Amino acid sequence: MTSKKVVELFYDVVSPYSWLGFEIICRYRNVWNIDLKFRPAFLGGIMHGAGNKPPGLVPNKFAYMTKDLHRLAKYFSVPLHPPADPFEVMFQKGTLTAMRFVTAVQHMEKGGDKQVEQVSRELWRRIWSEDKDITKLESFSEAAKKAGLSDDEIEKALKLSTSQEIKDKLKRSTEEALNYGAFGFPMLICHVDGKPEMFFGSDRFELMANSIGEKWLGPNPDSSASRL
């Protein structure tokens, strides 16, 4: 078997499309011959650095996005239900502290990435499925506990998330995404023949599969493979 191709997923839990992309690439990580790397970053920094305008600030785009997310949630089998006030969640509260917490969890984790995967998923679930807060310390604690972290691990992650080390790490990840050409999330970077190939959005997996020499088996590859 050829060596695994490294695939980096840059994401922020403020982005519902990132949740969709996250779940799909997680389903394929053991189907495709890839080495998946989670790269939590700050979408606000990406939008500012790239000079981009959030779709939620364009009325027609926002109206389309609401319908689009409903269709995609059903297609991808992700329990995504927009919060009552998406504008407040995305633009007033934001996720800078949440992404620092995710970065802290990743920094602490040794020998794998299950904790950062589960914590990210629980934070997405709180915003985009349960319409709950992810700006308060108790919210991070609840999400982390559901993700399987111990009370001691949660306490350490909360403390670490406010450190300069973690703030700098999240900033570096965001800058690296911008250096790759990011203008929004999710962004996947596939390293093919020593070169990075960028794919933006949650609807580029078929094209991405072709780029890395794999097959797209639909949003639920396990069930698709069983029918082959």
Automatic annotation (TrEMBL):
Keyword Transmembrane helix annotated: no
UniProt keyword terms in alphabetical order: Transferase
Domain DSBA-like thioredoxin: 6-212
InterPro entries in UniProt: DSBA-like_thioredoxin_dom (IPR001853), GST_Kappa/NadH (IPR051924), GSTK (IPR044088), HCCAis_GSTk (IPR014440), Thioredoxin-like_sf (IPR036249)
UniProt-listed Enzyme Commission number(s): 2.5.1.18
MF annotations from Gene Ontology: glutathione peroxidase activity; glutathione transferase activity
Pfam short name (any one): DSBA
Catalyzed reactions per annotation: RX + glutathione = an S-substituted glutathione + a halide anion + H(+)
Keyword Transferase: yes
Gene Ontology CC terms, in alphabetical order: mitochondrion; peroxisome
Active site feature: 15 (nucleophile)
GO biological process: glutathione metabolic process
Superkingdom of source: Eukaryota
Family: Belongs to the GST superfamily. Kappa family.
Protein name stated in the entry: Glutathione S-transferase kappa
